[in-house]
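Sequence in, structure out.
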Amino acid sequence: MPTPPIQITLPEVFIIESLALSDEAKNHFDGKILYDTLRLHGKQPIYYYFRSAFELQNIAQIFRDTGYRHLHLSCHGSAGSIQFTFNSVAFSTFATIFSGLLNNRRVFISGCSLGNLALANALFEVNGGMYSLTAPKKQVFFDQTTAFWSAFYYLMHAEDSQFMKKNTLESTLSQICPLFQMPIGHYFKNTGLQAAVDEQIFQ
């Protein structure tokens, strides 16, 4: 099947995950749990597990070929890098892998401290038409993230199964961030500020 035009998207979640060997040993795959949960909701998510940036390059193109609208990454991270099983990459490198592939799409990341302007700016620099980035501001834990993201997608899909509207997204984050004690950064281009990347913090 040919790759659909960039503006044609499907309201589904493409989940990618890369964790530490210790997480694998404990079967702590929160991305896989989210995949199973979304299927129970009647959605058609896609799930890929990878261990290196090299593998991610191929998966990024698969994501684009599907036409899926929402990219969800489960990983470890820090204020300056994204960590995979066997290596880590700078934000600029991660952005380059997805250059031009995220226009008209939203990105959600389940990883410690990846809700920051540096990552948001790197992604928007090479994906000017990306809708938003949403990710935790601080350290997060397996039992916390599994419950948080399942609740988030359930509430979003219950409100509107076809679209993630900005007002609904903000309302949902306002409700569940205090409940799960997870500060979240939400980043988007502010048309009122000459399309500068703006940050909303929900905590």
